[in-house]
Structure formats: structure tokens, C-alpha cells
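Figure S7 source data.
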Amino acid sequence: MPLYEFKCLDCCHDFEKLILKTSQTSEVMCPVCRSRRIEEKFSTFASSSSSKSVAANKANCAPSGG
Ligand SMILES: [Zn+2]
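C-alpha cells for the predicted zinc ion complex:
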């Protein structure tokens, strides 16, 4: 099933979206704040090397709530 996980870099909202074409990922926006700053989450690729960039992105994220 082409269900992708995304995370909003502005409000840190996690959501899933059905993506039929890879190009559609660029059109995804946050359902909460309508931000285009979306990060695609690859839960299948649980690699230790990717945790670096994730930590860097989390630093810019505000805590949930509000
Ligand atoms: Zn958002």
C-alpha cells in the first residue's frame, strides 16, 4: 500500500498520506498549518546513519501543543 508517513517541520505534526506517484510527495502539505516544509519519514529504513539528520530537524521543531 503506497501509504507514506510525513512530518511537518513547522509544527511537528505527524500524518500519513496516500501517494500514488513519487512526484506527489512534493505537493504534500501539512493538514494542520498548511506548511510545505514536510519531511518524509522512512520507517522501513531504520538506519543509524539517518538518525543524524532527524536529530537536526527536531532541534528546529517546537514542542507539540498550541
Ligand atoms: Zn504543520
